[in-house]
Design a protein that fits this description.
It is built from 7 helices and 6 strands. By secondary structure, it is an alpha/beta fold.
Length: 239
């Protein structure tokens, strides 16, 4: 299948999410009760809902997006370049609107796809759910309701690695290691994003971290296709 996909027609994507509020005490009583009910399914008997609130960021109903980073392989004067751009900040609705404008433009051709690592299960639905919560019309490429499987333009490096084994999960960090790709985990990791956002208020650091995951996903995709990796001097950051 991958031989039919041009890398230039793929938008690589990653998101960073945090709990909707800095702490459980800042959550409304109604949402506290709902989180208490939700968290009963995974917290230990001795743990309270407040103690596991840090995990709220992985649920679209209790978390929010603080960064969406994207990357695309293009050419200038016949030379390949990899363009990275991040939509990041405290205003989730605005970053989603800005992202929608970009992805609607990118996905205006039927050959275009979006790709992430574990994105089919996490990133893509999370973005779609948060857009609906904010009253934003879904981009056509994310609006998959009623579509046949071959009409859905999602690629996922985790799915590609599974080869149909639905029990198997492999992290992006592990795959980049075994494929000899520079690891994206050289600064913070996902468990630290909320503290960097709420305590350090360093959205730029989160964006750089997210962009490294996008680049790593693109490199892994190229490995799967047997194509040369992206060179450091061909990477551009968009404003």
């Amino acid at each position: 299948m991958l031989e039919k996909v041009r890398v230039e027609d793929v938008l690589f994507l990653d998101i960073e999410t945090v709990p909707d509020q800095p702490s459980f005490n800042d959550v409304s009583p109604e949402m506290q009760a709902l989180w208490d009910k939700k968290s009963q399914y995974f917290r230990q008997d001795e743990e309270s809902a407040a103690e596991v609130y840090g995990r709220a960021g992985i649920y679209a109903e209790f978390g929010k997006i603080v960064c969406i980073s994207v990357g695309v392989l293009a050419h200038r004067d016949g030379q390949p370049i990899f363009r990275l751009k991040s939509f990041a900040g405290e205003d989730e609705k605005q970053l989603l609107i800005d992202f929608k404008q970009m992805i609607d433009h990118f996905a205006n051709k039927a050959s275009r796809n979006i790709c992430g690592h574990n994105a089919r299960e996490f990133d893509f639905p999370f973005i779609a759910r948060r857009m609906l919560i904010h009253g934003i019309k879904l981009p056509a490429i994310l609006d998959v309701a009623g579509k046949k499987p071959w009409e859905v333009r999602f690629l996922d490096t985790l799915d590609l690695w599974k080869f149909g084994d639905y029990k198997h999960y492999t992290s992006l960090n592990l795959l980049t290691t075994i494929f000899n790709i520079p690891s994206p985990k050289d600064d913070i990791d996902g468990s630290q994003v909320a503290s960097v956002f709420y305590e350090d208020k360093d959205i730029e650091r989160i964006a750089r971290y997210c962009e490294k995951d996008v680049l790593a996903t693109a490199q892994l995709f190229l490995r799967f296709k047997g194509e040369p990796l992206i060179e450091d001097d061909t990477i551009e950051l968009a404003n």
